[in-house]
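Justification of resources, computational component.

The compute hours requested in this renewal are based largely on the per-chain cost of generating structure records like the one below. Each record pairs the submitted sequence with a full structure-token output. That output is archived, and it is also reused by downstream analysis tasks.
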Amino acid sequence: MTLKPEEINKFEQALQFAEKQVAALVEKHPDFFPIYTVNGRWYHQGELWTDWTGGFLAGMMWQFYLRTREPKWWELATHYSRLLAHRKHDRNVHDLGFIFLNTYLPWYELTGDQALLDVLITAGRTLAMRFQPKGKYLCSFIGPHSLFIDIMMNVPLIIFAALKTGDQALLEIGLAHCRTTRDYLVRPDGSTAHEGLFDVETGQFLGQSTHQGLSPESCWARGLAWSMYGFSKVYALTNNPEFLEVAERNAEYWITHLPEDKIPYWDFHADLSQPPPWGRQKESSAAAIAASGLWDLAKQTQSPERAIVYRNTALVMLLALCNPEYLAIETPGWEGILKHGVYHTRKNLGVDESVMWGDYFFVEGLTKVVTSEGSYS
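The structure output for this chain reads:
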């Protein structure tokens, strides 16, 4: 599809709105890293479940700087990134990729500063400590028996660190995790399970499970987006076609199961005859993640036909997210960027709200489009 001038303008307006919302957040709550809103306002108390989202706020600042080159975004991005530096030793989460790939990686790429690279390498080595040799996977924060699909978005940090240092053992950890995830969490039809359970004594796979999805057998929308984008990221680093194949299998399931407006419900197996949150609950953050991932995948695929489909689907999803139904631009008092995101249905955390990763990947996807050479032709 060819973007019309008014559609390009819609993307620009959405990014300007995003800048306004982030600027208001940091002015109102300096040095605060929120996760989700409550009634549209960034939340400060209550259960986090896990502290994994700091890189998304700072990451948006880097995206704004990449597009505008405005000094204020450089200053904010570097300040908020520094606040995360201590997390490079954090062994309590499996999400160090989310924290550092969105912050220290663009910072390093812009400056070439060895100290920034050292932070990325240290964080990658810390994440690799989660590796379970018998099962050949990085365990989730739940425990050594648990493998999450989400970790596919974090394992690129390990692979990046391995390639920068020439550490073959570290690289093998990253690649083994990807293959275990492919073999046990990605189904033949391209759908995904949220969690795999393993016997910690033998490494034997016990079965699929979920914390976030409708059921162990269902396809949680955000999990599928994590997988598709994560395997695409790994392919970008390794140029290994086995990982591109998984991303494309995920993309096929995603594209063929989207509803008419191209914004998924929270789980692809949700009963749409039922009300939210377990039924007809949209999940804008999953759409944002998938749109950004599909934009990359369109450039990676060896199929010209698939490239067109991936690119067009990404653009249609981003355009849908720019409508006031999803973009909070016409919702007075709403502090986030995208409405109708979901954090954790089962725990009733951030359901039908703004979520920080949804806002980040929306900004990232739009930034890729508006800064991409020839993207409008």
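Confidence is low (pLDDT under 50) at residues 373-377. The first strand starts at residue 37 and ends at 38.
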